[in-house]
């Protein structure tokens, strides 16, 4: 019997921003930002999931297609290693596209990782704390105005999470009132969630509006200033918080690869191999994978997870000299949470909305979550959420400021006024 023996190197970008290698599902970002889930309950260590895989955590510096090597850097001194491969899989995902808008990249919060979700939660709580003080009364408008750009899944689920957290936290801030908070969704389309169609999109928009979200349709972010954002219709919004979910771009590493591309992504065949380059494969957001209808596979998580299984089969089949199979899959459904136990969904062509759609959203998310341990932890979190309010706490990772007692010398002893317990701060 033939045996499979090949070095397969997968180059990927994790969803979590943790420095120790972890995997998190994309939907968990919004739950963490809204304080519905504990961070550690939805992050899976890669080494626990891939027990029989040699894992190397590092930053990809370059890929030499001719020598079949990937140069990676790691360690505290960022020294480099050259990893040789028989097969290499590019699963780099995408990065945020700021479309060249001045100051946008430096000021906006993105929602591409769990680190972004934590940063957003920290920002929301920090602004509530600051606005609650008497000395910040003149700044409350900008402190309590929150703008989310993008009316797709990321934007809608982010705005729903932000609105829920702010409304539930508000009773604990005695100097703040609900009419002081302004939550704005800037959407370039006529209605939100165009992927789900007009009926569900308009339903989601109505529900968000009923819950106090201001939707600016047919509008884009034109500029970011020191005092807020300028919209394409000439409106200026005075804010200190802008969440950007309005665009993605291919990973910049792809531009350095001497491989065929289409729309700045790697062009592959139906089996996810790059034509003319044996042993080079790509999937997910960084690949243009043809479908059976003459188009391309959409860059969704349900497609990417299934692409991975087919690609693994094809690598083994290629090494054993067997036939490869093309990737074929039709979207099963699309779901989105719009906050406060409401959602919208289209599953196998059937539309759902309200509580039922939200329940389906959570159920499917739970089933897709890797490892039984994490499923149980998340289920417990959601159960407790029914009986208790949100924990609006910040995740702070700064090192505590050390203090040392300054020794008192003989010259300090005398009738002069002095503090015997002087403290000096060490930076």
Walk me through this protein's architecture.
It is a single chain. This protein is of the alpha/beta class. It has two domains: 8-96 and 249-319, FAD/NAD(P)-binding domain (3-Layer(bba) Sandwich); 104-246 and 334-367, FAD/NAD(P)-binding domain, CATH 3.50.50. Helix content is 28%, strand content 23%. It contains eleven helices and 26 strands. The chain has helices at residues 28-33, 39-42, 46-49, 104-107, 114-131, 140-143, 153-169, 198-210, 301-319, 355-368, 372-387; strands at residues 8-12, 22-23, 44-45, 59-64, 69-74, 79-84, 87-91, 94-96, 109-110, 145-149, 182-186, 213-216, 221-224, 228-231, 236-238, 241-244, 248-250, 261-262, 265-267, 280-282, 287-288, 333-337, 343-347, 350-354, 403-405, 423-425. β10, α7 (153-169) and β11 form a beta-alpha-beta unit. 33% of the residues are buried. Mean pLDDT is 87; it is low at 1-5, 17-21 and 418-427.
Q: Sheet bearing the most strands, described?
A: 5 strands, parallel
Strand order of the largest sheet: 9-16-10-11-12
Helix/strand/pairing category:
alpha/beta
Low-confidence regions: 1-5, 17-21, 418-427
Distance between the termini: 66 Å
Number of domains: 2
Q: List the quaternary state of the chains.
A: single chain
Mean pLDDT equals 87
Rg from Cα = 25 Å
Number of alpha- plus pi-helical segments: 11
CATH fold-type name of the largest domain:
FAD/NAD(P)-binding domain
């Amino acid at each position: 019997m033939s045996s499979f023996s090949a070095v397969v190197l997968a180059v990927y970008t994790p969803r979590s921003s943790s420095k120790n290698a972890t995997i998190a599902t994309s939907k968990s970002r919004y739950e963490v930002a809204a304080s519905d889930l504990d961070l550690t309950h939805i992050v899976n260590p890669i080494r626990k999931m891939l027990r029989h895989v040699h894992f190397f955590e590092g930053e990809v510096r370059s890929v030499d297609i001719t020598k079949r090597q990937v140069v990676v850097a790691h360690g505290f001194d960022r020294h480099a290693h050259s990893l040789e491969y028989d097969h290499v899989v590019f699963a780099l995902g995408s990065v945020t596209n700021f479309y060249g808008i001045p100051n946008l990249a430096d000021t906006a919060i993105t929602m591409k990782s769990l680190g972004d979700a934590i940063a957003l939660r920290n920002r929301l709580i920090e602004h509530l704390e600051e606005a609650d003080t008497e000395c910040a009364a003149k700044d409350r408008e900008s402190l309590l105005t929150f703008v989310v750009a993008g009316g797709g899944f990321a934007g809608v689920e982010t705005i729903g999470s932000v609105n829920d957290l702010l409304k539930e936290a508000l009773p604990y801030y005695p100097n703040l009132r609900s009419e002081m908070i302004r939550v704005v969704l800037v959407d370039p389309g006529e209605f939100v969630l165009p992927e789900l169609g007009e009926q569900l999109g308009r339903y989601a928009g109505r529900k968000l509006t009923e819950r106090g979200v201001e939707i600016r349709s047919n509008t884009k972010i034109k500029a970011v200033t020191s005092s807020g954002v300028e919209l394409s219709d000439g409106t200026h919004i005075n804010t200190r918080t802008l969440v950007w979910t309005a665009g993605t771009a291919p990973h910049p590493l792809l531009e350095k690869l001497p491989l065929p591309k289409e729309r700045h992504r790697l062009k592959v065949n139906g089996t996810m191999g790059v034509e003319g380059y044996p042993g080079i494969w790509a999937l997910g957001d960084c690949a243009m994978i043809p479908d059976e209808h003459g188009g391309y596979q959409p860059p969704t998580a349900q497609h990417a997870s299934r692409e991975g299984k087919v690609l693994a089969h094809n690598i083994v089949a290629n090494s054993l000299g067997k036939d490869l199979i093309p990737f074929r899959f039709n979207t099963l459904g699309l779901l989105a949470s719009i906050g406060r136990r409401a959602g919208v969904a289209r599953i196998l062509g059937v539309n759902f909305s309200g509580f039922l759609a939200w329940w389906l959203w959570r159920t499917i998310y739970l089933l897709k979550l890797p490892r039984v341990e994490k499923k149980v932890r998340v289920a417990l979190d959601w159960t407790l959420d029914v009986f208790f309010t949100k924990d609006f706490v910040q995740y702070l990772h700064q090192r505590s400021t050390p203090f040392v007692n300054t020794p008192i010398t003989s010259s300090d002893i005398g009738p002069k006024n002095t503090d015997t317990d002087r403290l000096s701060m060490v930076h």
